[in-house]
Amino acid sequence: MPASTSGTATTADATNGAATTGDDLGEHREHSTVELDRVVIRFAGDSGDGMQLTGSQFTTVSSLFGNDTATLPDFPAEIRAPAGTLAGVSAFQVHISDHDILTPGDAPNVLVAMNPAALKANVAAVPSGGTVIVNVDSFDERSLEKAGYAANPLADGSLSSLRVYEVPMTSLTLEVCKEAGVKPRDAERSKNFFALGLVTWLYSRPVDPTIEWIAKRFADKPQVLDANSRAYKAGYHFGETAELFESNYQVRPAALAPGTYTDVTGNTALAWGLIAAARLAGLPLFLGSYPITPASDILHELSKQKHFGVRTLQAEDEIAGIGAALGAAFGGSLGVTTTSGPGLDLKSETIGLAVNLELPLLVVDIQRGGPSTGLPTKTEQSDLLHAMYGRHGEAPVPVVAPGRPSQCFEVAIEAARIALAYRTPVIILSDGYLANGSEPWRLPDVEALPDIHVDFATEPNHEGPEGDPEFWPYLRDPETLARPWAVPGTPGLEHRIGGLEKADGSGSVAYDPANHERMVHLRAEKIARVAASIPPVEVDDPAGLGGAPLLVLGWGSTYGAIAAGVRRVRARGLQVAHLHLVHLNPFPPNLGEVLRAYRLLLVPEANLGQLARLVRAEYLVDARPLSKVQGVPFKAAEIENAVLAMLGEEGEEVESR
Amino acid sequence: MTVLADHKSTNGSAGPAQTGAIPVTTRKDWTSDQEVRWCPGCGDYSILAAVQMLLPELGVRREDTVFISGIGCAARFPYYMSTYGMHSIHGRAAAIATGLAVTRPDLDVWVVSGDGDALSIGGNHLIHALRRNVDLTILLFNNQIYGLTKGQYSPTSEQGKVTKSTPFGSLESPFNPVSLALGAEATFVARTHDMDRKHMMETFRRAHEHKGASLVEVYQNCNVFNDGAFERVTGRDVRADKLIPLRHGEPIRFGAEGEHCVVLEPDGRLRVAEVAEVGEDAILVHDESREDPGLAFQLSRLARGPFEPTPIGVFRCVERSEYGEAMAAQVEAAEERKGHGDLGELLRSGGTWEVPG
Fold first, then answer.
1. Segment holding A362, helix H or strand E
2. Model confidence at B4: pLDDT above 50
3. Chain B window 31-70: which residues touch A at a Cβ cutoff of 8 Å?
4. Calpha distance A237→A124 (Å, rounded)
């Protein structure tokens, strides 16, 4: 029945090797279980096929089972592009492993394709010898035509290098649902659960957690619950009984550090980090936000958590979102606005106002492909220079960036710490990949989180000409240069602030040239002094600082790919160092020293070299950019190859690949 | 002073709370030490005086009072008040004030804006603040011109207006701010003018009393770039015949002897008439609390511009759920339902598993 069963056992990764008992499975006729150390599975179907749900549930079960996991959802910007077309294909890639992993995997070992379009859009990513499971019911003439196939790829030999399994998912789903009296049209929608059941069997996942999850999730729709549950079980049993698959696979639990784990996406971790930050600061949290992909989930998550005293305002536009957040900050809340690139453009003027007002404010930018509307659902890191410089006038703003989904939590707290301590807007740069990607997260001890509380001003801080007490809103803390934060309602400290230049100290409107220059320098110096509160960076270099010839410098969501690429280079017996920055403005205090310790400096970024430009300008180092702007994350292999190429060019000995 | 170390009991709203008697104040207490820098003769002076004279009568505290403005001549207003204040950026005052008002329901938040600031660059924020019914008192200084940028036409300038940017006359139909506010679901809409301090104070008082968003359009003379724009209705010698005072529950009549009036025609339209001709019983009785804004809207359209009999006073004053209060109620209800948020529980809410040591 399989169109092609040639080839060897599905191996998890071409470079890493995987099948620990990888016999030639073709010779087996009974099911055996093959152990793998990791596997990458991609679920692909129509936008309406529920692939994101299927993929994330498979991830959850794998996490609960104890695997390390990393995910890459990939969906179109259109909510429902025409069914069956390439534009409407939605995919979810998950990497599960028995050891700690850093990326969702370079290439899928297994592709589950629910229709011809899903196959066509994704099959090129499957390496030779990989597995493809198709819903053969959807390979009719019309669907093939919609996907742009002139001939049926299942029959024309074009997939001969792959192991292809043809499974009639739709008809089998309809059949089991018929017994339950579910209408065919409704039953057809459960076919993703059939696929999930089949893959659950194929990778020896426990069944019960998903059965329980279906029962809970569809509790208010008993018929849907029944249909999904039946389809899921049918898929599982099909794998077990149909003599289609020669074996199934086992990926054992990973040896993760002891603790309590949860599976978390970047946006959820960020939302929770904001709640934690407000709690740690002893301030109420206020979010002013306008819906935008891929940031909206933070608005959704925070809107659910009102019992933490969170207030959320879905504003009339991006400008109102940040305006309201700034107004709340004036009143003594932790003010936050969340957005993506186009929204950051619109918020620029208000960020500049916050710079002048010297009030704490958090601006979260979940970067996506640009310019303009660009690629709303795809990832990119191209807003770094915008975050740094995207305002008129000299308007410095601290910038921080998480590198992994779970790190969004602590980075939100760190951003709040800086904003509160230095009374400044802070920009958090996440991106679409971190936002929607998930990973297991060892939960921190909430009692051990840092105290970021700051005091409001309560007393006058100056004497008037007649010795009378006055409040000067721009008298600064000598160490941090932060001005006092006096919230309305505090008697005796009434004062006016605004976008006009302020007189140093008194805060009155001042047009005096020397005062303006002094204030420009003071504002710049205040942000520069944030560096004193940042711990020195520690470079990952087994040979010690400066031991390797080459340092890979990264920031943000490239963390996983760089760390994995660096591991691969080291597995070849070569030396390479990795440094990943969270603080992008100001840079950590010892960054220059670290960068100058390396002869070669490679900076991979999902942009045209924005961090490379910054470190060149700041430290006069020969940073070489490695750019990728395809809307998808770097692969570990791309980092590995770039490191090898650079080492080779520079006369280091590298084995050829 | 209460600091917010723990806001468990304040359903998340920030800020200190004052207790004790409200101190007695005078105008001087509400006046800042800043030199007022509007052009001599500007209508803004009389509006400032009206506000500074009104505040001691309102039984409010200086420290609980905040003026927020955008950009424009009117936007300098907060500097002259010895309260908390923010002179923000162009058009955004209503948005910024929204964030402050919903997080600090204990404060009195005023927005001072102009026709360019509120109706052009900030039009979106204004209509949404009104729609949401955020507890703000919004004073819209309408002088039908851009003053700070030295004399371009504004969204309330009459069609045909010749200005620096419209040397051949403006092509645009103006906004009627009262009509706009009523269309934006405002719960309190009024109009007053800078030549009548008593009327201003009374109107501002009513706006301040109102729970929710209140918008007061103030006809304000710009004696440099648009002098006399309202002269034909607010001038002392014409006022009696050209301003129609709206008083809740009273027949709408005007004129030195109350000889003119407003009547509702059988076809549903409003018309200015002579009492002698239509009889007292035919006069429309003003009802600002009407749920349906239709009649208020018609009153706002009675004059095509400030050159024919123009209603002033409160057009509409109705009750509707105030946004900040409703938001606080949701927070409270959530805390009652789920208990005060537990951070550890939140982090575990997506399901967890243990990796043993």
1. strand A361-367
2. no
3. 32, 34, 61-66, 68
4. 30
In the three-class reduction of DSSP (H, G, I as helix; E, B as strand; rest coil), residue B157 is classed as coil
Domain A550-649 of CATH type 3.40.50.920: yes
Q: Is residue B282 part of a domain?
A: no
Residues forming a β-bridge with A222: none
pLDDT attached to residue A449: 98
- Rounded (10°) angle between helices A191-202 and A169-178: 110
Search chain B and give the residue with CA nearest A441. B352
pLDDT per position as a tens digit, A342-373: 999 999 999 999 999 999 999 999 999 999 99
| DSSP 8-state class, residue A536 | P
Range of the domain at B36: 24-241
Binned at pLDDT 50, 70 and 90, residue B2 comes out as: very low
> In this structure, is residue B285 part of a structural domain?
no
Segments of chain A scoring below 70 in pLDDT: 1-31, 655-657
pLDDT digits (tens, 9 = 90+) for B40-68: 999 999 999 999 999 999 999 999 999 99
Tell me yes or no: is domain A262-448 CATH 2.60.120.10: no
* Cβ <8 Å between A494 and B348: no
Pairwise CA distance, residues B221 & B193, whole Å: 9
Q: Which pLDDT value is given to residue B15? A: 59
Which of A307, A316, A323 is facing B341, going by the closest CB pair?
A307
Q: Are A1-9+35-167 and A262-448 in the same CATH fold?
A: no
- Interface check for B92 against chain A (CB to CB < 8 A): the answer is yes
Q: Cis peptide before A294, with omega less than 30 degrees from 0?
A: yes
User: What CATH number should be reported for the domain whose range is A1-9+35-167?
Assistant: 3.40.920.10
CA A495/CA A304 separation, integer angstroms: 36
Tokens of A322: 């940040």
**Mean per-residue pLDDT over chain B, rounded:** 94
d(CA A505, CA B104): 27
Domain count, chain B: 1
